[in-house]
Amino acid sequence: MDVEVLSRLQFAGTVMFHYLFPPLTIGLGLVMVIIEGLWLRTRDESWKHAAQFWTKIFALNFALGVSTGIVMEFEFGTNWAAYSRFVGDVFGSALAAEGIFAFFLESGFLAVLVFGWDRVGPRMHFFSTLMVFLGSCFSAVWIVVANSWQQTPAGYHIVPTEVHGVPGLRAEVTDFWAMVFNPSSVDRLTHTLIGAMILGGFFVCSVSAWYLLRGRHQLFARRSFTIGLVVAAVFSVLALVSGHDQAEQVSRTQPAKLAAFEGHFQTGPAPLYLFGWPDEEAREVRHGLALPGMLSFLVHWDFDAPVTGLNAFPPEDRPRVWVPFQAYHLMVGLGTLFIALSVGTLPLLRHGRVFRTRWLLWVYVFMVLGAFAANHSGWVAAETGRQPWVVYPSVQEGVAMPGLRTSDGLSEAVTAEQVLASIVMFSLIYLLLFAVWIYVLNNKIQHGPDERASEPGAAPPGGGGFLVAAVERAAKAGSMTEAHGVAPAGGQP
Fold first, then answer.
1. Residue 276 — φ and ψ, nearest 5°?
2. Using CA of residue 392, residue 393, residue 398, residue 399, what is the dihedral sign?
3. Which helix (H) or strand (E) holds 3?
4. Element (H, E) at 26
5. Residues 282 and 263: beta-carbon distance below 8 Å
6. Nearest alpha-carbon partner for 332 in 445, 173, 148, 195
7. What is the pLDDT of residues 468-484, one digit of tens each?
8. Greatest CA separation found in the chain?
9. Are strands 272-279 and 284-291 parallel, antiparallel or unpaired?
10. Domain map of the chain by residue range?
C-alpha cells in the first residue's frame, strides 16, 4: 500500500462527496432569487409557496455541504502537513477572506431565509435570499482562488523554514491581489459558477418534470420547469464560451495539462479528439475519432500551428493521461448535450408542447445526473491534469520559483494503514449521509409544495413585467391544453 496513493484517494473521495452540495446550493440560490423576485413583483401567494418549497431543498443541501466540507480542513493537517506548511500563508489569507466575506454573509441571513417567512416583510425576505445566494457565490470565489493559486501561483515569494530541525520552504504572500487574480482564477471561477447554475437549472427541471409526468402540482411544475430550462439553456451556452477561454489559458500556463486532456504526445499540429483511448506506452490515442488540426485552430487560430506535447516535458513531470483525458471529454460531451437539449427545448415552451411530450420530460428527469457528472468530471480533469505537482512551479519577477510535488506534500507521521482505516471509516459515514440525503430529499419532493401553489385557480393577476409574462405564457399554455380536453403528461383526457 502506497501512502501517497491512499491519501490522494481519500482526499478525492471526500472532496467529490462534498461537491455534490455546493454547486447545487449555488444553482438553486439563483432560482430562488428569481422565483422570490416574481413573488415580490406580483404579490401572488402561489409564487411564495413555490419559493418556500425550493428553500426547503436548498436548506437541506446547504446543511450537508457545510458538514462535509469541514472534513477537508482536517485532512490538510492530518494527511498533507508538508503541503499545509508550504501553502499555509496563501491559504490562510484566502480562507480568512472566505470567512469574512462569505460565511458571515450566508450564516447571517440564512435564518431569515429559512424561518423568516412570516416574521419579516417580503422585501426583507427577498433581500435575505439574495444575500445567501451571493454569500454562496463568494464562498466559491475564495475556494477557487486558493485552488487556482496551486495551478498558477502568483504574488508570493519563497522563504526558508525549519520544522523539528528539518529544513524546508514556505510560500509567503507578497501581493494579496496578485495572489487573488492569479492567471487562472477568473477563468476557473467563471466556469465553476456557470457549472453550478447549469446544475441548479437541470435539478429544478428534473423535479418539475417528475411532477408533470405524475400529473401533480401542475401549475407549480410548469412555472418551475420554465425557469429552470431558461437558466440551464443560458448558462449551458455561456459554459461553451467560458470553457474555450479557460482552455486557451491552460494552453499558456499549463501546457502539460492541455496535452493530457487531448492525448497530445508529440509537439506539432494537433487534432481535436471527440473520444478515444489514450495509450501512454505507444504514445497515441487508439480507437478515437479526431478532427485534424482543430486543437491547433482553437488554441492558435491556425490549423497548422504547433501545440506543445507531452514529449516537451521530462517523464517525471508529465501527468498520467488516461484519467484527465476521459474526464475532460466526458465534461465536454455532456456540455454539448446540455446546449443541444436545453436550447432545442426552448421553442417547445410555446403552446406548452414540452409539457405534453412524455419522452422529453423523462429525459429531463434524469438529466440532472448528467449535470452532477459534468461538474465532477471537470474537477477530476483539472486536478489529475496538474499532477505530479500539487503546487506548480512558476516565475515571479524574473525569478524561478520551485513548486511542490504531490509526493513531497504528505505528512511525515501518517502511515498507509492509518489512511486506509480512515478511508473505510469515512466511506461508511458518507454512505450513511448519502442515504439520509436521498431519503430526506425524496420525502420533501414527494410531499411537494403547498397545494395552493399548484392549483390552476392560483394563477396570478395580469401584469408584473416581461419575465412574469413569459413564464405565465408557458405555464398557462399547459393549462389551456388541459381545459380543451388534451391530457397532461401524467394523466388521461
1. 170, -175
2. positive
3. helix 3-18
4. helix 22-42
5. no
6. 195
7. 666 666 666 655 444 44
8. 83
9. antiparallel
10. 3-483
